[in-house]
Specification:
heterodimer; A: about 325 residues; mainly alpha; two-stranded antiparallel ribbon; 13 helices; B: about 500 residues; alpha/beta; Rossmann fold; 6-stranded mixed β-sheet; 17 helices; about 35% helix; globular
Chain lengths: ~325, ~500
């Protein structure tokens, strides 16, 4: 009985370990230090951005615009560091760029927040629109300043944030720190309690005096800020500002959250789950890459995994509500 | 009369905990059998075993002389057992006719539903039961009582031999209730058997031929209604003599008003409503369904917007009315529907109890002091006698109705409010828990709170309140003070 309960509540953790062992045995080069390093670095930006989005999902909403923050942050940051007048003095350009990139995330988050709480547009529609708008802006901006789709020539000291050379622990520590911060917020603060209570029952929360609008606005802001930080790390790792950055990433982000076990219906899940989900998805992508499996097959596998994870969540929830109805 | 259904030595347990044991009940053809018991006594579980939702662990059941072991609700339905739930299972956005045929729509040759035919046959069925309504009417436009009758007709249409009613009278007005009873007696005459689950002992005594009493998962006994009386049934249900229905609490009513509501207007629902509650006073708010009582409560608490009106707490005007400002000023609101508006059903008891209080147990960073939180929640669980195995992990879903309601009270009482707005606080709660809830209310008043007590049960208002206001069509139609309390006076003001 206890073993069964343990397996049920730690499914993703056990799957991750299993997948790791299987990969270590069967996939050539998987355990090479180069690959393991690469694997960890690949998971950093995914962890940051998925953590930000988990805030929103816990609340029962969605934020498509996170990938547009990656792109816009990346090109604007790269412009400041490589092309703007500031670029001559990297000591100033780098901190300014980092702050601007995170602020772009905050701005997009605030726009989403206003759209959802004041204009009362469902987050699905609001963030779908802002995703398109800011992704488009990223391309427009790059074309104007560089007449290309990417901006190169960033100062080398900036690459430390992406884990270049000996600094490979830097982005890992950044990502783990912000993941732990999110965990702490959810578990130990009133704000965290409010997120879960709104995600479970917004009406009862409102009547109990929970500042529903303020909480939702703050969540949008947080999601944007986390995407902004992810944009810094990812730009540093790619050593370029790329206007299409994050284009195909959304599926991996959602997959990490859902496979981790956070309910897409809101109210249950958390950041530990998202961390495990991120590692799992990165592992699958990494292994498929090593084995030379074409990207479209990876797509199919990811699709199936999301479907399976979501299905098990819905089955558990619907069974619960069924018993609720009859008992 | 021969027995239609026999339940013999039935036992049911969930993960090692026995919730039903040694149940022996038989039901004759055309008999109305009442099933009473406190919340958690096992009534619903027994009915779910009958209805194929749960599968029994031991014992046997026979239906019409044959072994009966339903594995799914559908199997039970096919065997002629219909279940009318507390929350009706009609689709309110569809018409009556669509609802009646939803399980098996007659199709036209080229596909598509033959609407003409379902409207025609529905009309016939409705007429047979003396309902003069258009089958094309949407269910959401029907009063509760009519919806119930529609559901009954639907189950008869499917040749039900036994109809199980689960607390059917809780949301009905008095005339609606009488009409329902008449319909059930009609079923009896047609040879249909009825299992009637209820908290309201009076109803059971009026309607049923025999009464089975359950307690703690076991059958205490079965009585013939002629030999039964209220006191005896209550004693069997709770296992002790309940001498008093209402607690006697010595309290003092002060002069100064704690809550003043003036000139409330809201569309067609509230018209120029004013009231004032003094410190220590319990005011009842009576009226028929649709009179605007719940709407008034929600408007005072800032849940819904008003066109005009003001609220003063202890003489201070509340600027912008919202649940948040009301709570800050010391108000509390126990909502009518605890599942939808009161509780986080999938969350543990503790998170629910401390949802509001949490504001007082934070450090400057907004971090919850879990130690203090646990102390507060344990204290509430103790003092309100909430039955829970582990308040930290057990979700609300697993608690009985009475205990859920106590948690709703707990989350407000913990905040020691000056004003308590209670909307049907004893609905779906058993006798024992009712007494406890009246005691909580009395204690709050004794401690100096003002209480607005909304109820459709006039008796409890008469038993508990100092003053009763009556609402009718969005207006306060009258006020009766304690010494003039009389059912007729109050009832006339409401109609």
């Amino acid at each position: 009985m206890k073993v069964k309960a343990f397996i049920q509540s730690n499914t993703i953790f056990l799957l991750l370990i299993l997948a790791f062992i299987v990969s270590a045995i069967f996939v050539p080069h998987f355990t090479s230090s180069y690959n393991l390093k690469n694997f960890l670095l690949q998971s950093t930006d995914l962890l940051l951005i998925a953590t930000g989005l988990t805030f929103i999902v816990l609340n029962g909403g969605i934020d498509f615009s996170v990938t547009s923050v990656l792109a816009l942050g990346s090109v604007v940051g790269a412009y400041i560091m490589a092309l703007s007048p500031l670029s001559a003095t990297p000591v100033i350009a780098i901190p300014v760029a980092v702050i601007v990139m995170i602020a772009i995330g905050g701005t997009v988050g605030a726009v989403n927040g206003v759209a959802v709480t004041i204009l009362k547009i469902p987050s699905f529609i609001a963030t779908l629109s802002t995703q398109l708008i800011f992704s488009g802006l990223a391309i427009l901006f790059t074309k104007k300043v560089a007449s290309r789709t990417s901006i190169f020539g960033l100062p080398e000291s900036f690459f430390v944030l992406g884990g270049e050379g000996k600094a490979f622990l830097v982005p890992i520590i950044i990502a783990l720190f912000f993941s732990a911060l999110a965990y702490w917020i959810l578990e130990y603060t009133r704000f965290g309690r409010h997120i879960l209570s709104i995600g479970t029952n917004p009406k009862a929360s409102f009547i109990s005096g929970v500042p529903v609008k303020r909480v939702i606005f703050t969540l949008c802001l947080l999601s944007g800020l986390y995407a902004g930080i992810a944009s810094v790390v990812l730009t540093a790792r790619n050593q370029a500002g790329i206007s299409s950055m994050g284009d195909s990433m959304f599926i991996s982000i959602i997959a990490s959250i859902v496979i981790g076990g956070t309910s897409i219906l809101g109210g249950s899940g958390g950041f530990k789950q998202t961390l495990l989900g991120v590692l799992f998805i990165t592992l699958i992508n990494n292994v498929m890459n090593l084995m030379g499996i074409p990207w479209f097959i990876t797509m199919i596998v990811q699709g199936l995994m999301i479907l399976f994870a979501a299905l098990s969540d819905f089955i558990i929830k619907s069974r619960k509500s069924f018993f609720q109805a009859v008992s | 009369m021969k027995d239609l259904l026999t339940i013999k030595d039935v036992e049911k347990s969930f993960s090692g905990v026995t919730v039903l044991r040694n149940i022996n009940i038989n039901l004759a053809e055309g008999e109305i059998l009442g099933i009473v018991g406190e919340n958690g006594a096992g009534k619903s579980t027994l009915m779910n075993v009958l209805g194929g939702v749960y599968i029994k662990n031991k014992g046997s059941m026979t239906l019409d002389g044959e072994d009966y072991n339903p594995l799914t609700p559908k199997e039970a339905k096919d065997n002629g057992i219909a279940f009318i739930h507390q929350e009706l299972s009609l689709f309110s956005n569809l018409s009556i006719a669509e609802n009646m045929f939803i399980e098996d729509f007659p199709k036209k040759k080229i596909g598509g539903i033959n609407f003409k035919s379902i409207v025609r046959s529905s009309d016939e069925y409705l007429r047979n039961y003396g309902l003069d309504i258009d089958p094309k009417e949407k269910v959401e436009n029907l009063p509760m009582g009519t919806r119930q009758v529609v559901e009954i007709i639907k189950s008869l249409m499917m040749n039900a031999k036994i109809i199980i009613f689960d607390e059917p009278t809780t949301s009905l007005s008095k005339p609606e209730k009488e009409k329902l009873f008449e319909t059930i007696r009609g079923l009896k005459r047609k040879g249909v058997s009825v299992l009637f689950i209820s908290h309201i002992i009076e109803d059971v005594l009026t309607l049923c031929n025999r009464i089975a009493v359950l307690r703690d998962g076991g059958l205490v006994g079965t009585l013939n209604t002629e030999d039964a009386n209220q006191n005896e049934i209550v004693r069997m249900m709770v296992g002790r003599e309940l001498s008093k229905v209402y607690p006697e609490i010595e309290k003092e009513i002060h002069e100064d008003p704690v809550l003043e509501v003036t000139g409330f207007n809201q569309g067609q629902t509230l018209k120029d409503v004013s009231l004032s509650i003094r410190k220590g006073e319990i005011i009842g708010l009576y009226g028929i369904i649709g009179a605007g009582r719940t709407e008034l409560a929600k408007a005072i608490f800032g849940v819904d917007h008003i066109d005009s009106g003001t609220v003063r707490v202890n003489g201070h005007l509340i600027d912008s009315l919202s649940p948040q400002t009301c709570i800050e000023k010391g108000m509390a609101f126990v909502t009518e529907d605890r599942r939808i508006e009161g509780l986080l059903m999938s969350k543990p008891v503790r998170n629910n109890i401390t949802l509001i209080k949490i504001n007082d147990i934070l450090n400057r960073l907004g971090v919850i002091n879990r130690h203090v939180e646990k102390e507060f929640s344990d204290k509430m669980v103790d003092s309100l006698k909430i039955k829970v195995s582990d308040a930290d992990i057990q979700p609300m879903l697993n608690l009985s109705g009475g205990n859920q309601q106590k948690v709703v009270f707990g989350k407000w009482v913990i905040n020691q409010p000056d004003i308590f707005i209670l909307d049907e606080p004893t609905r779906g709660v058993d006798v024992g828990a009712k007494f406890e809830i009246y005691s909580i209310i009395g204690q709050m008043a004794k401690d100096g709170s003002g209480i607005l007590f909304i109820s459709s049960e006039m008796e409890e208002l008469i038993g508990v309140c100092d003053r009763i206001l009556v609402m009718k069509k969005g207006r306060i139609s009258g006020e009766v003070v304690r010494k003039d309390f009389e059912q007729e006076t109050i009832g006339n003001l409401a109609l």
